[in-house]
């Protein structure tokens, strides 16, 4: 998982982050992750599972939505050499 470093945070900002984290019962690092998540993930984003369930309800379909138990794999795209 990627990580980032943020330098030169004013002391007041860091203190406010620590206080906010304590209020929510999590570490400062976890609080920063939560703030970032909230700020970049739109509530209006498409949630495919919810959309499929709504589609099934609308058309009275019996859909069984099951997550694939296999771990996610990163796709790799190797160039294809047609001459080999």
What would your notes on this structure say?
The chain is an all-alpha fold and 84 residues long. The protein has a domain at 11-58: Arc Repressor Mutant (Orthogonal Bundle). Helices cover 45% and strands 0% of the residues. The chain contains three helices and no strands. The protein has helices spanning 11-24, 28-40, 48-58. α1 (11-24) packs across α2. The longest helix is centred in the N-terminal third of the chain and has 14 residues, at 11-24. The chain is flat. The mean pLDDT is 86.
Topology:
Layout: H1 11-24, H2 28-40, H3 48-58
Helix pairs in contact: 1-2
Q: Given the helix and strand composition, which structural class is it?
A: mainly alpha
Strand tally is 0
| N- to C-terminal distance | 36 Å
Task: Give the low-pLDDT segments.
Answer: none
- By CATH, the topology of the domain at 11-58 is Arc Repressor Mutant
- Global outline: flat
Beta percentage is under 5%
Main CATH class of the domain at 11-58: Mainly Alpha
Spell the H/E element sequence. Answer: HHH
Features:
84 residues; mainly alpha; Arc Repressor Mutant; 3 helices
């Amino acid at each position: 998982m990627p990580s980032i470093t943020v330098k030169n945070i004013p002391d007041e900002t860091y203190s406010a982050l620590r206080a906010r984290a304590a209020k929510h019962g999590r570490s400062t690092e976890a609080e920063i992750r939560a703030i970032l998540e909230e700020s970049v993930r739109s509530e209006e984003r498409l949630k495919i599972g919810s959309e499929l369930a709504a589609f099934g309800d609308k058309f009275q379909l019996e859909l069984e939505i099951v997550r694939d138990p296999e771990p996610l794999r990163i796709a790799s795209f190797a160039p294809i050499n047609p001459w080999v």
